[in-house]
C-alpha cells in the first residue's frame, strides 16, 4: 500500500484534530488499522464506530466532535482503506471477530457500537457473537435486512459506489472533485470530506484508485439480505437498539434506503428496538455532516451517559 496518508488543516479534519491517534491491531492475517479520539481522556462508555461498505474510519470525525469527553474508536474494516491488505474471507462475521480482537488490543472491555450502513450489520454480528463486549447498539441507516430483488445482482444496488472502485484517478485533486460533485454532498463540502477523500486513495499518481477491495465489497453486499443466520441473530438480541433512518438515499434522492413501513415493522417485533427519523440528511450525510452527526450524537449520548 502506498501514498495513503491523509492530511488536514488541524481545525476540522479527522487525522490532525486534537485528541486523535492512529492504531493498528494484530488480527487474523495482518493488522487492522484505524483511529481513535480521546483514548487517554474520556468518561462514560467508549464508542466503537463502524463505517459503511466502501468507506473508512474517516467517516466518523463529525460524530467524534459531537461527543466531547467520549472515547471514540473507529477501525478501517478488513478490505478497506489501510486494512485493505488483509486477506479474505471478508464476511460480516469475520469483520465482527476482527473488532473483538481490536478491542482486546486496545484494552477496552465493553462499548456502545454505532454502525453506519453495512457497519450496522457488523455491529449486530458483534453483539450476537461477542455479547459480553457490547453495551448497546445504534444502527444508523443500516442493520435491517435489505431484500435482494430476484434476478438482480445484489452489487447493483450500490450503483455508482461500486463503479467508483473500478475507476483510476490521475491526481488527488481529481478525486476530491469527484466527491465535491457527488449529489449526496451538494452544499456540504468541508475539510473533513477532503480528508476522507484523500485517505481513501491508494496507489501513486497518475494511477490512483479507491482503496476498498471490490472482492470484499462484493462478498459483503450479498450478506445484507438477512441470510446466513443474520435475521435470527438480530431478532435474538435483547440489548437496547436505536435505529436512525435517513429520509433520503445514497444519491440524495427522495427514496430512502429503508421504507418507514420496514422500520415500523421492526419496532413492532423487537421490544428493545427504538426508531428515530434524522431530519435533513441522506444516507451519507446522516454521519458525514454537522447536522447529521449532531442528531446521531444526541441518541448515542443516551447510551454512553445514561440518566
TrEMBL record:
Keyword check for Hydrolase: yes
Ranges in coiled-coil conformation: none
Alphabetical UniProt keywords: Hydrolase
InterPro entries for this protein: AB_hydrolase_1 (IPR000073), AB_hydrolase_fold (IPR029058), AB_hydrolase_sf (IPR050266), Epox_hydrolase-like (IPR000639)
A GO MF label: hydrolase activity
Cellular compartments per GO CC: membrane
Residues annotated as domain AB hydrolase-1: 46-163
Source taxon at top rank: Bacteria
Keyword Hydrolase: yes
PANTHER family: AB HYDROLASE SUPERFAMILY PROTEIN YCLE, MONOACYLGLYCEROL LIPASE
Name of this chain's protein: Alpha/beta hydrolase
